[in-house]
Every structure is written in C-alpha cells, then in structure tokens.
TrEMBL record:
This is UDP-glucose 4-epimerase. The gene is galE. GO terms for cellular component: cytosol. Belongs to the NAD(P)-dependent epimerase/dehydratase family. Residues 6-329 form the NAD(P)-binding domain. It is an enzyme of class 5 (isomerase). Keywords: Carbohydrate metabolism, Isomerase, NAD. Homodimer. One of its GO terms (molecular function) is UDP-glucose 4-epimerase activity.
Length: 344
C-alpha cells in the first residue's frame, strides 16, 4: 500500500517538481492548489514525466471546509508538504495584509485538520529569509532569527513559531522545517518549470524572459552592496535537488527517524553567487547574451546569504550536487519549451 501524501501548492514551481520526486519514490500524491500562480495543465505534465497522474483538487487552503472535504475524500493521508503561499518579497512590502492572510491562515487550517484526519507529519516550506542578514556566513540552523526584512519573511518566521507552539501544546504532529535558499532551474525534461503569472518577481524567470526577448531589460537591484562586485549574493539551488530533500524529509517523519518532533534543515548548496556572477554563468552556459542594467536597491532585499548545508548533508544524507551551469541550462531549456508551445 503506497502512503498517501497531500501537497499544497502542488502545481506550483517547487511543488510540481516535488510531486514528481514523491511519485518516483512510490508515494501516492494528492495535490491541492487554487491555481492563483500556476496552471492546471501542470498535472498533465507531471503525468508525462512520471507516468502517474496525481489526484488534483482546486481548493484554496484558506477554505477550511473545502480542505476538510479534501481530507474526507482522500482518507489515510499520512503527511503534508505545505508549499501553498504568496512568495514575492517586493509584493509583500506593498500588500502585507494579503501575505499575512494567505500564509498564516492556510497553515493554521492544516494544523487544525491534521489531528482530526490522523495526519502524522508536515513538512513546511520555509526560507533563509528567517535569518535576515546573518552575523556570520555561511549560515547554520543555529543562527539567530533576525527581525524580518519583509512581510513575506515575517510570515515564514511566524509560521515556524505556529508549528513549534502547536507541537509543544501536545498536538500529535511531527514537523520538519526546510529553510530553502534560492531555488532555480527546471526539470530536465523541460515539461515543468517556473512560470509565474504576469511579470516575474524572481530573478531567473525574468532573466530567461529577457534572454528570449519577452522583457526588454533585466534590472540588477544595486551594485553598491558590500560584496566583491557590489551586487547581492545568494545561494542558488537546483529545484530538483531541493525536491528530493522533501522526499527524504517525509521518509524521515513517517519512518520515525526524527530526533525531535520539530526539526530544521538548511537546504542550499553552501556556495554564494552574486547576481552579476549568475548573469555571467548564464551567458557562459547557454551562449546567450543578456541585456541588463544596474538600478537602485530594492526594498526588502538583504545583502548576502548562503547556507552551511552540512547538517542536512550529514543527518539526512542529502546533498545538492547539480552544477550551476547545468541548472541554468535547464532554466533556458524550459524557456525554449515555453516558446515552442506558444505559451511565452
């Protein structure tokens, strides 16, 4: 009997790649997504890749009764991987209430429903934004949580606290908080990838759309940071490597391997790359020249952060081992696929 897993936001960027890896590992997957930042045909593409069609329900995680009905329709869900959230730093500064409602209430609903339906564990999609600008780099899981630089980052901090408080209250829930660094790239088949609605808020889709000529110019936000070339530094991780970490984490919960009822892992490469280095790497990997310009800093951005992933490497037996060149080529291959399909 395959264990049944609920993936919220499962037609989204990271969610869809994780569904593929879960199915490849023998899990049965139920996707819940409101399609606010994704497309229903992602389910078709997941089926093309894995040969298995996941169950799909168009439900908003803010809808308590709707989510209750999903658990009733698919009994025996053992674990949840919770991706569904608003996720753009800049937008969160402009629309804080939308971010607090979407990101907090969706989690609260799940935590209330889990004991009712016998769901054992949850993996929460957290972020390195919880560290703010760290005092020491690379950043470990023991680094202090700093005041968030954006409402988006604050929702991740608050959600981590909500999970800890819920477990501490005696709720029969196990949790793993995965603090991602910067996921990029696309599946090697180019059948799924990052496709935000409207103007991309994240660097790589904007970059590939600029390379394709869809966007006129890529803006680099700031060249006056205290970094070697003045642009921000991030830890860019291949989305498929990230997806595999979720499968390992779910196995850990369901097989009783956790050392604590709430565990935290940094999911990154351990290598920091500046925005300008990333642009140069893209041009070298693809042979495509980018039209970009340096503009002023963007509200909510921190200067530099990259992971010390050694705890995840040693404890989970997981490692991000895909090169940045291969990762960027996969992102470009995805953009070419979108052009071939007449999507973008």
């Amino acid at each position: 009997m395959k264990q049944r897993i609920l993936v919220t936001g499962g037609t989204g960027y990271i969610g869809s790649h994780t569904v593929v890896e879960l199915q490849n590992s023998g899990y049965e997957v139920v996707i819940v997504d409101n399609l606010s930042n994704s497309r229903a045909d992602v389910v078709d593409h997941i089926e093309q890749i894995s040969g298995i069609r996941p169950a799909f329900e168009k439900v908003d995680c803010l809808d308590f009764e709707g989510m209750d009905a999903v658990f009733a329709k698919y009994p025996g869900i053992k674990g949840i991987i919770h991706f569904a959230a608003s996720k753009a730093v800049g937008e969160s500064v402009q629309k804080p209430l939308m971010y607090y409602r979407n990101n907090l209430v969706s989690l609260i609903n799940l935590l209330e429903l889990m004991p009712k339906h016998g769901v054992e564990g949850i993996i929460f999609s957290s972020s390195c934004t919880v560290y703010g600008q760290p005092d020491h780099l690379p950043v470990t899981e023991a680094a202090p949580i700093k005041k968030a630089e954006s409402p988006y980052g604050n929702t991740k901090q608050i959600n981590e606290e909500i999970i800890r408080d819920t477990v501490a209250s005696g709720s029969p829930i196990h949790a793993i908080l995965l603090r991602y660094f910067n996921p990029i790239g696309a599946h090697p088949t180019a059948l799924i990838g990052e496709l935000p609605n409207g103007v991309p808020q994240n660097l790589i889709p904007y970059l590939t759309q600029t390379a394709m000529g869809i966007r006129e110019k890529l803006s680099v936000f700031g060249d006056d940071y205290n970094t070697p070339d003045g642009s921000c530094i991030r830890d860019y991780i291949y989305v498929v490597d990230l997806a595999k970490a979720h499968v390992i984490a779910m196995d850990r919960i369901l097989n009783g391997k956790q050392k604590d009822k709430v565990e935290v892992f940094n999911i990154g490469t351990g290598r920091g790359l500046s925005v300008l280095e990333l642009i140069n790497a893209f041009e070298a990997a693809t042979g495509v020249k980018l039209n970009y310009q340096i503009v002023g800093r963007r509200a909510g951005d921190i200067e530099q952060v990259w992971a010390d992933p050694s705890y995840a490497n040693n404890e989970l037996g997981w490692k991000a081992d895909t090169s940045i060149e291969e990762t960027l080529r996969s992102a470009w291959k995805w953009q070419l696929h979108l052009r071939e399909e007449g999507i973008m």
